Amino acid sequence: MSHITIVGLGAGEAEQLTLGVYRKLKRAERLFLRTKEHPVVKNLEEEGISYTSFDDVYESHDTFEKVYESIVDILMQESKKHDVVYGVPGHPLVAERTVQLLLQRGEANGITVSVEGGQSFLDPMFASLRIDPIEGFQLVDATSFQKEQLNFRQHIILCQVYDAFIASEVKLTLMENLPDNYEVYIVTAAGTSFENIKQVPLHLLDHETELNNLTSVYVPPVQEEKLLYHQFETLRHVIAELRGPNGCPWDKEQTHQSLKKYLIEEAYELLEAIDEEDDDHIVEELGDVLLQVMLHAQIGEDDGWFSIDDIIRTLTEKMIRRHPHVFGTISVEGSDEVLANWEDIKKKEKGNVKESVLSGVSKGLPGLLKAYELQKKAAKVGFDWDDIHPMLEKVGEEWQEFKEEIQNNQIDEAKVIAEFGDILFALVNIARFYNIDPEEAVNKTNTKFINRFLYIESKVHESNRDIKTYTLEELDVLWEEAKRNGV
């Protein structure tokens, strides 16, 4: 059976090699090194130890993953000819992607892979920076990480900052969360006689010229809470505090029922901000909507029924399940097919329960929007006109019935309300035919009315008269003036 022995070259100096590793290197029939850019290699050369390095492989590929894949392929091929010793910087099981790939693939390819010691760079790193890892720390590969995985309340060590390009990527990612002048440390060859530690503001991280394969970047834990206001866990903690024993009396009194009206109000204020196309206002109002979600989630957690984690998990599962064309193998042509698939998946989720076509329309929707959704549901099974003319005739019919009711000598209030509702319902049908959101349309008209009435009030104020002294005709002149001025 083929055999690959992986050994660690230590943190940087020959004295840090264990005797066992030194003997393995000395006796190796075929020695491969991931890179010759390591201080120990010079000592090996002086002792006449021959090796093959993979430095040229780095020049042949445009991503580190492809480099590592290529190195592993070569090692596995070579091991079929004779036993191989493979040397890597530091400890083989610390920040060595090629080692992980060999462990994953070796057995499946009939190759025995054994790992032998080597001093990791972490111990001297902790000693040089004088940090205790029990406080919480993250070791992150600078060549492949996402900002979401970083916990800025912990010590963060980004290893494999080989060059200015990687340093620049690290800098830009960190600057999405931290101030430009946040102090970080560039650490090269920690624990060796040529150790170098340099403190720099974050924005100058990639200006350092002495970067190599022994370089790491240390990011100290954030102490100033305000710097983490943008993170979800901070918001979660704030909401928990508000409803905690020493929190706000108003927040502690709230229930799901008492908060209902605020959710509706905040949603409409968000719609207003969207209509205004004011990004800052949209951000603020989205925050207010999120606040309502967080409060409901905290109430659920306080009562022991659910938490924000359950909400996020349920939503994530639903989004993945209902988007097989993104997260699965289904192909779609356009948004119509997406919506059709969505409805089909919803039916399968509900099983064999027989539901009305109108199921799924929320009882809490505003009247006009609810009418729109009910009609849209009914239209899916053919209960709809395909031409505008009968819709217009229906509006005329409902208008006539309304006029007849209000012209009676004895007005029946219930019938008048019903007939007026029928007019609105018929008008919604016309809105739907032209793809007009009736709720949005009436909100735009409301906004227009507010702006024109404010114009009237400003003109009245200029006249030093009380608005109540104006006749309707005079006010209407100002209204038309507002229209002419584009208000």
Can you walk through the features of this model?
The chain has 487 residues and is an alpha/beta fold. It folds into five domains: 2-115, Cobalt-precorrin-4 Transmethylase, domain 1; 122-225, Methyltransferase, Cobalt-precorrin-4 Transmethylase, Domain 2 (2-Layer Sandwich); 232-306, Orthogonal Bundle (Helix Hairpins), CATH 1.10.287; 367-436, Helix Hairpins, CATH 1.10.287; 441-484. The protein is 53% helix and 10% strand. The protein has 19 helices and ten strands. The protein has a five-stranded parallel β-sheet with strand order 3-2-4-1-5, with helices on both faces. A five-stranded mixed β-sheet has the order 6-7-10-8-9, with no helix packed on it. Helix 4 crosses helix 5 (97-106), helix 10 (256-276) packs antiparallel against helix 11 and helix 16 runs antiparallel to helix 17. The longest helix has 25 residues, at 279-303. The chain is elongated and about 115 Å long. It starts with a strand and ends with a helix.
What's the CATH C level of the largest domain?
Alpha Beta
Q: Can you tell me the overall shape?
A: elongated
Largest sheet: number of strands, sense, barrel closure: 5 strands, parallel
Q: What's the number of structural domains?
A: 5
Termini separation comes to 85 Å
**Poorly predicted runs:** none
